[in-house]
Design a protein that fits this description.
single chain, 228 residues, alpha/beta, TIM Barrel, eight-stranded parallel beta barrel, 9 helices, globular
Length: 228
């Protein structure tokens, strides 16, 4: 069963979507690159609003996550009992630093998810290595938000092989990156654990500034509908 991940940016949007059918609410700074962190104060406020929701938080855009500031933020994320933390692999040469972070930091019940980028670091040859260093899942996203979608950058065979490889290794598998409603049925047939959306949920898909509940409901319904 494929779930629905929806990215939100602030308290207003948290209140707005609090009764919507969303499997994972993803909190990110949509104005700060691919995986901008919203800050501890805002994260704490949103967690209080969405006490009964599964949440993920993006950790920021530092190519090296194994640093003092990032580790301090991770500690706060875990203290708030956030279910997932999304950590970007911005540079394949940094896998060693990701390994050190995962080896030396106790995530407790929070699951670290590695984000690879279709237009930057996608490489099927490193999937098993990413899982082997301790990540509980991998998701594809896009680094550039005003360009092509993940399905335009990667061909269907590459996406299918990615999903198969991650799931064969008993890890969480996610697909995102400027996805559109028309992508849903095709991607659901691959059986990823979730599909992630932001731009498609907004009235203006290019500025990705404000969630539209009608669009969110359309995406939620499409993900939860039975595949013909």
């Amino acid at each position: 069963m494929t779930g629905f991940l929806a990215s939100i940016k602030d308290v207003h949007e948290a209140e707005k979507i609090s009764n919507a059918k969303i499997d994972i609410v993803d909190l990110k700074n949509v104005d700060d690159g691919a995986l901008g962190f919203v800050g501890l104060s805002l994260m704490n406020k949103v967690r209080q609003i969405l006490k009964h929701h599964k949440m993920s938080v993006t950790l920021g855009n530092n190519p090296n996550p194994n640093n003092k500031d990032t580790i301090a933020i991770l500690s706060k994320i875990i203290n708030q009992e956030i279910e997932y933390v999304k950590i970007g692999l911005f540079d394949i040469n940094m896998i060693g630093q990701h390994k050190l972070l995962l080896k030396n930091f106790s995530f407790n019940q929070t699951k670290p998810i590695c984000v690879i980028f279709a237009d930057k670091t996608f490489n099927l040859n490193i999937m098993e290595e990413i899982i082997g260093i301790g990540y509980k899942g991998i998701m594809i996203d896009t680094f550039n938000k005003n360009h092509k979608s993940m399905t335009e950058i990667l061909n269907h065979s590459e996406i299918r092989n990615f999903v198969s490889m991650v799931k064969e290794n008993k890890s969480i598998c996610g697909l995102s990156g400027s996805l559109k409603i028309c992508d849903i049925d095709k991607l659901k047939k691959l059986n990823p654990d979730f599909l992630g959306f932001r731009g498609q949920l907004c009235s203006n898909k290019l500025d990705r500034n404000e969630i539209n509940l009608d669009l969110l409901e359309r995406v939620s319904s499409a993900i939860n509908s039975t595949i013909a």
